[in-house]
Amino acid sequence: MPSLPRPPPRYVGPAALHPAVQAFQQGTLGFAFSGGGFFFPYHLGCVIQLKDMGILDQRTPLAGASCGSIIASCVNAGLDLHALVGELLQFANDCRSGF
C-alpha cells in the first residue's frame, strides 16, 4: 500500500503558540496543585520534573489545596525535593507496617 504524502510543514509563529508556552516565555506561568493525599507523590514527581526542566523556579507562582498546598510550601521553603521522595517512601512503609 503506498504511503500518503506528508503535508508541508507549517510555520508556528508566536500567535500560534500554546497559551502555556506564551505564559512561560512572558514569565507569567504559575501552577496550582489539587488536594487529595494520594496525589502527593504525583505532585512531587511533577514538581521535580518541572524544576529539572528549568520551567519552575523560585519566582514561579505556586498555589494548592490540601496536599497541593504542602507541595507548594515545600517548594517555596526550598526543601530538597529528592530527599522528600525518600521520606515519602519511608512514610508509606511505616503506614503499611502499622507503625
UniProtKB/TrEMBL annotation:
One of its GO terms (cellular component) is cytoplasm. GO terms for molecular function: triacylglycerol lipase activity. It comes from the Eukaryota. SUPFAM superfamilies: FabD/lysophospholipase-like. InterPro entries: Acyl_Trfase/lysoPLipase, PLPL. GO terms for biological process: lipid homeostasis; triglyceride catabolic process. This is Patatin. The lineage of its organism: Eukaryota, Viridiplantae, Chlorophyta, core chlorophytes, Chlorophyceae.
